[in-house]
């Protein structure tokens, strides 16, 4: 049985990813700090033997569970709403930088593969919609979206 860690497990995409992995016979370890994720997104997983949850902030290395074996890590952790850009800009930067660094260190320790997810918001306030793979973006590092774009 493969073991996966899902950071941002209580978010919309993260919680659905947990469901998908469990349906594929994974053992799933979910982590979330509930800054924007919702506990009710995981309610249906309580009592599932192949699912465990840890409330933690991936920007705080000491909060990440000490896991010895992992096959895959999925990083879905970051507030991604324009509303959050104004309320949580420093935290968003820390999640993208420190949080990802801590998960990369965990991946190195456990030899796990890692996937870092993002949204089209990283392209900035787009001039092209929808964005194609060749679109390089319109990033303003000091604009309202800067904390997420960077």
Structure, explained:
Helices cover 29% and strands 16% of the residues. With 150 residues, the protein is of the alpha/beta class. The longest helix is centred in the middle third of the chain and has 22 residues, at 89-110. The protein is globular, with a radius of gyration of 16 Å.
Summarize the structure.
The chain is of the alpha/beta class and 150 residues long. The chain contains 4 helices and 5 strands, in the order βαβββααβα.
Labels describing this entry:
alpha/beta, 5 strands, 5-stranded parallel beta sheet, 150 residues, 29% helix
Number of strands: 5
Strand order of the largest sheet: 3-2-1-4-5
Low-confidence stretches: none
How many helices? The count is 4
Beta-strand content estimate: 15-25%
Question: How far apart are the first and last residues' alpha carbons, in Å?
Answer: 37 Å
Q: Rough shape?
A: globular
Largest sheet, described in full? 5 strands, parallel
Q: Which whole number gives the mean pLDDT?
A: 90
Structural class: alpha/beta
Task: Reconstruct the topology from this structure.
Elements: E1 3-7, H1 12-23, E2 27-32, E3 51-55, E4 72-75, H2 82-87, H3 89-110, E5 113-116, H4 146-149
Parallel strand pairs: 1-2, 1-4, 2-3, 4-5
């Amino acid at each position: 049985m493969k073991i996966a860690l899902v950071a941002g497990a209580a978010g919309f995409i993260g919680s659905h990813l947990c469901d998908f992995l469990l349906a594929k016979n994974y053992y799933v370890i979910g982590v979330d700090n509930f800054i924007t994720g919702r506990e009710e997104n995981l309610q249906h997983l309580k009592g599932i033997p192949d699912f465990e949850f840890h409330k933690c902030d991936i920007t705080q290395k000491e909060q990440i569970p000490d896991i010895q074996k992992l096959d895959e890590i999925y990083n879905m952790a970051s507030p991604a709403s324009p509303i959050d850009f104004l309320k949580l800009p420093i935290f968003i930067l820390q999640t993208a930088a420190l949080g990802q660094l801590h998960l990369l260190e965990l991946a190195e320790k456990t030899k796990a593969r890692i996937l870092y997810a993002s949204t089209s918001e990283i392209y900035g306030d787009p001039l092209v919609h929808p964005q194609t793979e060749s679109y390089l973006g319109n990033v303003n590092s000091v604009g309202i979206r800067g904390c997420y774009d960077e």
